[in-house]
């Protein structure tokens, strides 16, 4: 193995050196507890307040609307359990709408509520991973309290029409403000418009580790006036919605990462889009039988995610062989990497279980270069051809590699 090429940026990104530098003083010099009523605590609280303001400003939100959490998973759980449990105090059987192609951190909390007897509607998606807006309209009921729809899909990169969805929801809101609209924007931050006023969302999840910030910190935007209950009790931090001592260095790093990525997102997005298009075009020349999953139109997908199927070949074998060449890819969501079931997102867009198990994802990042992708274009076809030769005869010629 002569090099290492990291292509799992949708799972997590390397921490930017500028972020590390911004965090450094808060490990040992400014170490107070921001909830403590002393000078050390006030110094830490001031830094947290400034970080909160920076993130709120970029979202077009108020500081009081930013709730720091330990992860996007926790933020999603707070948005879902917090609003639905609050609504259950006023409505006998609250109804929730989501899609069949959500991240596990939305899907599993909703399934847990379903087991408790809550009413759930799972909207289907088309082959591009996009919902039908007319179907959404039909499913909204007087008892619908929450609609949770991912902004940019973590496995296939599909972009949901959030503004159009928001408009539909606003037209159906009752006097209590329901249904609330929540979107998981973990993959969208730094790549799409995340101004909450433009989007019209009530709740939005953000992640630090997807934008070259530290792991262990994320945020939930919750519009003022939203009825929401905590899911973690204790010290009453974060406006009483998330008890726990804040990890001050991580909060500072998150804000710095947001600041950096917001200043360069337009040029970065175009660069990644060009790299993605180059890779797909060249791969289809070498292996015409490869299936690229997700939206065909570039405006309907974020620029850094490429999901592809190599029919009849187990994705685990592909990934193990790629690892030998120093290429770090994935089979989809890192949160479900131990799951023996095929990706629910890929089956939701129409792939068979066998096709889903034959699919891999590469996700580009700030560090990805054209020569990295050209290297993969040489390695990947040879890998799938080598594996294919271990399978039935009809696959041997299926993964033909053009001679150099």
Mean pLDDT: 94
Largest pleated sheet: 7 strands, mixed
Q: Helix/strand-derived class?
A: alpha/beta
CATH superfamily (homologous) name of the largest domain:
Type I PLP-dependent aspartate aminotransferase-like (Major domain)
Summarize the structure in short.
The chain has 404 residues and is of the alpha/beta class.
Structural account:
This protein has about 400 residues and is an alpha/beta fold. Helix 5 (about 105-115) links the parallel strand 3 (about 95-100) and strand 4 (about 120-125). The protein has helices spanning about 15-25, 25-30, 40-60, 70-85, 105-115, 135-140, 160-170, 195-200, 250-285, 315-325, 345-350, 355, 370-390, 395, and strands spanning about 5, 65-70, 95-100, 120-125, 145-150, 180-185, 205, 220, 290-295, 305-310, 325-330, 360-365. The strands form three sheets. Strands 2-8-7-6-5-3-4 form a seven-stranded mixed beta sheet, with helices on both faces. The chain has two domains: about 5-10 and about 265-395, Aspartate Aminotransferase, domain 1 (Alpha-Beta Complex), CATH 3.90.1150; about 15-260, Type I PLP-dependent aspartate aminotransferase-like (Major domain) (Aspartate Aminotransferase, domain 2, 3-Layer(aba) Sandwich), CATH 3.40.640. Helix 4 packs parallel to helix 5 and helix 9 crosses helix 13. The radius of gyration is 22 Å and the shape is globular.
């Amino acid at each position: 193995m002569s090099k290492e090429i990291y292509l799992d940026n949708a799972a997590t990104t390397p921490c930017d050196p500028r972020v590390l530098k911004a965090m450094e003083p808060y490990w040992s010099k400014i170490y107070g507890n921001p909830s403590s009523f002393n000078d050390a605590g006030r110094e830490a609280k001031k830094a947290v307040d400034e970080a909160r303001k920076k993130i709120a400003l970029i979202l077009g939100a108020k500081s009081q609307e930013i709730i720091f959490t330990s992860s996007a998973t926790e933020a999603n759980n707070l948005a879902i359990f917090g609003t639905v449990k609050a609504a259950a105090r006023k409505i006998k059987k609250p109804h929730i709408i989501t899609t069949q192609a959500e991240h596990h951190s939305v899907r599993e909390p909703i399934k847990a509520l379903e087991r408790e007897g809550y009413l759930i509607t799972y909207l289907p998606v088309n082959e591009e991973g996009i919902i039908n807006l007319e179907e959404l309209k039909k499913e909204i009921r007087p008892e619908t309290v929450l609609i949770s729809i991912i902004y940019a899909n973590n496995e296939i990169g599909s972009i949901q029409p959030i503004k159009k969805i928001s408009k539909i929801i606003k037209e159906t809101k009752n006097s209590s403000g329901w249904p609330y609209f929540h979107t998981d924007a973990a993959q969208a931050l730094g790549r799409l418009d995340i101004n909450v006023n433009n989007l019209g969302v009530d709740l939005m999840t953000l992640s630090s580790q997807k934008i070259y910030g530290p792991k262990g910190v994320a945020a939930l935007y919750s519009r003022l006036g939203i009825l929401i209950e905590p899911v973690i009790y204790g010290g009453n931090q974060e406006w009483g919605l998330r008890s726990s001592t804040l990890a001050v260095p991580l909060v500072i790093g998150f804000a710095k990462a947001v600041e950096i990525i917001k200043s360069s997102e337009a040029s970065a997005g175009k660069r990644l889009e060009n790299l993605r298009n180059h890779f797909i075009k060249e791969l289809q020349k070498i292996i015409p039988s490869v299936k690229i999953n997700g939206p065909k139109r570039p405006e309907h997908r974020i620029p850094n995610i490429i999901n592809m199927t190599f029919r009849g070949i187990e994705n685990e074998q592909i990934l193990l062989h790629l690892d030998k060449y120093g290429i770090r890819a994935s089979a989809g969501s890192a949160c479900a990497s131990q799951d023996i079931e095929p990706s629910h997102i890929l089956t939701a867009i129409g792939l068979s279980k066998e096709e889903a198990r034959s699919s891999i994802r590469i996700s580009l990042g700030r560090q990805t270069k054209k020569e990295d992708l050209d290297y993969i274009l040489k390695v990947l076809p040879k890998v799938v051809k080598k594996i294919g030769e271990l399978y039935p005869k009809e696959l041997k010629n299926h993964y033909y590699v053009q001679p150099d």
